[in-house]
Specification:
The chain is of the alpha+beta class. It has one domain (21-86, 96-124, 149-225): Porin, CATH 2.40.160. The protein contains 3 helices and 14 strands. It has helices spanning 2-15, 137-140, 202-225; strands at 22-29, 34-37, 42-44, 48-63, 66-67, 70-85, 92-101, 105-109, 115-118, 122-133, 145-153, 157-162, 171-180, 183-199. An 8-stranded antiparallel β-barrel has the order 1-4-6-8-9-12-13-14. Strand 8 (105-109) and strand 9 form a beta hairpin. Helix 1 (2-15) packs antiparallel against helix 3. It is elongated, with a radius of gyration of 25 Å.
């Protein structure tokens, strides 16, 4: 009887252990994003394609649908596209554009879970090789455009995030400005959730495992007494 009472007390203690701020990883597809350049003369799409774009947001919570305000991380942000434009019907502008996040950005999620605020700059590695064919290319810009280096998006910046409490329905949006050889390029990020993973802290995993063992032991002792 004493063993049963001791195991029951252990299970109760584990069940009432303080809630911990475990991690929730949310993957976003940014394929609906767009790029606008050369004063709006070129917008991709339709003047080209976004071939791949994604990002990962990590927040804290007690499960996939119970999200906390507080720390948030934006990581693995990447976008690649191809320009294939005929601005004003006078020239042909073509070439690839690629941007990848250099290091994770740390910020905070607001109390209403609607905005992620980042106080520091966002660093990207950007590459591009844009060509222009036609006599009127100087009207559009200075070509060829070759870019291969770090782009700094000055902070602070805010990223609206919606539906965080509904697994599979979260959304993300943001508007950034890149410098493409002196020309301002607007990147409009539009993201939708594709996966969500609950990542309990190691201590919490041990707690849950210990609770399972204790419950199994309690059941075994009861069967022996029957």
């Amino acid at each position: 009887m004493r063993r049963i009472l001791a195991l029951a007390a252990a299970v109760a203690a584990l069940a009432h252990a303080p809630a911990r701020a475990d991690l929730v990883k949310i993957e976003f597809d940014l394929g609906a994003s767009s790029i606008s350049a050369f004063g709006g003369l070129v917008t991709v799409p339709p003047d080209g394609t976004i071939q791949a774009a994604s990002a990962t947001v990590i927040v804290t919570g007690q499960g996939t649908s119970t999200i906390n305000s507080g720390p948030v991380t934006l990581k693995t942000l990447s976008l690649s596209g191809t320009v294939n434009a005929n601005p004003l019907g006078l020239v042909t502008v073509t070439g690839p554009v690629v941007a990848n996040e250099l290091s994770p950005a740390m910020g905070s999620l607001t109390a209403n879970l609607a905005n992620a605020f980042f106080p520091n700059p966002l660093l990207l590695i950007a590459t591009a090789s844009i060509q222009c064919m036609g006599a009127f290319c100087p009207i559009v810009g200075t070509f060829p455009i070759t870019l291969n280096g770090t782009q700094t998006l000055n902070g602070p910046f805010t990223i609206p995030i919606g539906n965080l409490g509904t697994p599979g329905a979260a959304t993300l949006s943001a508007l950034f400005t890149l410098n493409l050889a002196g020309d301002a390029v607007l990147v409009n990020l539009v993201g939708s959730e594709v996966s969500r993973t609950f990542l309990p802290e190691p201590v919490r995993v041990l707690q849950l495992g210990a609770a399972g063992v204790a419950l199994a032991g309690l059941g075994w002792l009861r069967r022996r007494r029957e």
